[in-house]
């Protein structure tokens, strides 16, 4: 029994040894076969028995069987013949390129690998996505213009795949072929001859796609060219190629890029719509294009491991059918999940505005926990600010000023520092730093006006506020506090105005008279509170205005009476005519005439108003009254008397002329009568004196001044324009008689001789004195 057990143990060891040898040998042998696709069921693949060098009976005795990798069994082994056949028709286009199987033997155990390459057969023709492609081309398109066509798809590969495009014969277009970076062939229509819509509205072409199989297979599509009427401008993209990057796993509806094509035409020719063209079906599933806005958004799950780049072609077509194309290259980026960190080390919160350039404001460091390019960082300042960043060491940066500062222009800065890594999907972080600019007294006060003109009425009350001057200082704090003062010039008396040093109010110190002074000027200085103080000056001009009637002053009141009753007696007044319509107004129901505005010196001195009064009867009846208004400086008795005696105006001027002629005639007649009377009286007086006076010296009697000596000649003076035409005589100059000359009755005349020369005397008294007592 022991020997039998030992024999069995030895037999097991031998079997295990043989099995190990078979397994080891199976790793060294591989059977390789090829089979054309689309072969019928049970088609011959290979003779396994022949290839292994065994007989079919050995396959049966060793219980050989074929095992395919995967869940499906593609092959069947006939143990009687040793032939390997296919269980079902194989299609290479179903992504089955190479099939792997194993042949397992028992007794002894042996495992042999095998693989069958499914050879491609030209069993698919090129197929266009659409049987008819419609292109709208403007008749003004220039020769040489290219128009992309939809590409055909061929499920075969290699030489059996799509190889060539051809175009039917036509006089207008030729075909240009190209190969993309991925090896795919595409076709474009090239315009060879100008289109004419009036001659041919449509052009129909036959486009053929041919593969490289033997015999070759082909597919066709109709290309219908619609010739459009003239549309002068085609859409123009802002860029020919848009290159964008999108992180994988981006959420749906996320905006990728917005392509924009501008068309300067108006109406429908200027409205642009967008569409994908020459874009793979997979890319169309991952991205959606808004036909109206040109926004491309994520519509599927972007997977970096699946596809790193997507190439999209967008066609922009306006309402006239003109189109343009642009390419959009979308790069899917791997995830970069750590943003840089900004750590602020020191900060100067306030710097003076006169700080020199390159002044250090802050010190900070930047750290990114990522590695490689995702960990490399760069910093920048957002916006155009007078600051710059200077790298120092170990990712430290200094924030410095790089230009002169002006607090009056910008009092504080909100500086945003952006730190960004170098990853494909660049992450960034921001740090905001507030820096205040302290003030320096570098701005003098500025008056709002170079010259201030203030008007004040005469006879003002003392210390009357007449206005103010105003100056501002752009500085801050005490540097902006402005004080005012008058600049007193040497040699000039004290001015009549004063100014409030704090608010710039101007006051008149004493009453002023328009007739004495009509205007004067003073200089006002405004100084700030800085050290040293800065100042500015302005001219203050004070104008005096005479007192005048204020707006609304009552001038007169017109009263009308209507004998009717009721509505027929309701009266309304209105100003029918005026020398200056804007100066006076009439109350509608009161009849009061008032000033509509202030009376000025520029207004005419006399005005004539015609006031119309109208009742409410049907038909209405009306009457008018004329008012003569004089503008005067004051109301004196003489002026009032002259105003009352002033005659009514003569529109034609004839009455005035007649009055002047009559007055002249009366004056001439009166003067002639007066002269005759004087002449007669003087003559009688001389005759009377000649009979009673003693004999005069010869020298005097021989005078050539008429019948009287020169001393008896009277000067007669008339007052021009006097109403009563009165005249006065100057006292005559009598000679002095020698002593002892007999006088007689001339004793009275001696008293006359002693009268002062030039004294006014009564003429009748003089004559009586000369005649003496009767």
UniProtKB/TrEMBL annotation:
One Gene Ontology molecular-function label: calcium ion binding
TM segment ranges: 657-680
Major subcellular site: membrane
Gene Ontology cellular component list: plasma membrane
GO process terms (BP): homophilic cell adhesion via plasma membrane adhesion molecules
Domain Cadherin, first and last residues per copy: 31-128, 129-237, 238-342, 343-447, 448-553, 551-649
Name of this protein: Protocadherin gamma-C3
